[in-house]
Amino acid sequence: KLFFTDYGNAAKVERCDMDGMNRTWIVQSKIEQPTALALDLVNKYVYWVDIYLDSVEVVDYQGRKRHTIIKGRQIRHLRGLAVFENYLYTVNSDNLSILRINRYNGTDVQSLAKLDNAKEIRVYQKRTQTAVRSHACEVDPYGMPGGCSHICLLSSNYKARTCRCRTGFILGSDGRSCK
């Protein structure tokens, strides 16, 4: 799945399959400017920052179990969001500090460091990397991902895929080759 935010005409948090199909709104009310987004892959939660409402909130992958982690002036100007173990990590763009917020107890907020020009934050740790199983976009014996001549996108599950073409090409009638 692909999770993303949109604060155009109607602010929302959405999800879809990697090929863009099955687009679903998971948060569409009491939301103004969702910017940063982070996933808890183990427990299947979506966290986001709303810079207009000065809040960090969470829902499960279906948009249920919504609650506010933290709200108020102390978290204004947040950029980027990452989840690791019991904490959310984010960048305060006003003073360029890295903040650590307890995701179960939003009153526990610590400034860890200051970095010049910090705009985003990511946590890389072996336990946060999901095991890769064989999938529909694996390279075939001819070197083509999923048998697609250009781009292979996973669909509704790891066994299904959709072929797409680079700009200027169209997908052939076989659903795999680009012309």
UniProtKB/TrEMBL annotation:
Gene3D superfamilies xref list: TolB, C-terminal domain
Molecular functions per Gene Ontology: Wnt receptor activity; Wnt-protein binding
One Pfam family linked to the record: FXa_inhibition
LDL-receptor class B repeat residues: 1-43, 44-87
Cellular component GO terms held in the UniProt record: plasma membrane
Gene Ontology process terms (BP): canonical Wnt signaling pathway
Record protein name field: LRP1B protein
Taxonomy of the source species: Eukaryota, Metazoa, Chordata, Craniata, Vertebrata
Gene encoding the protein: Lrp1b_1
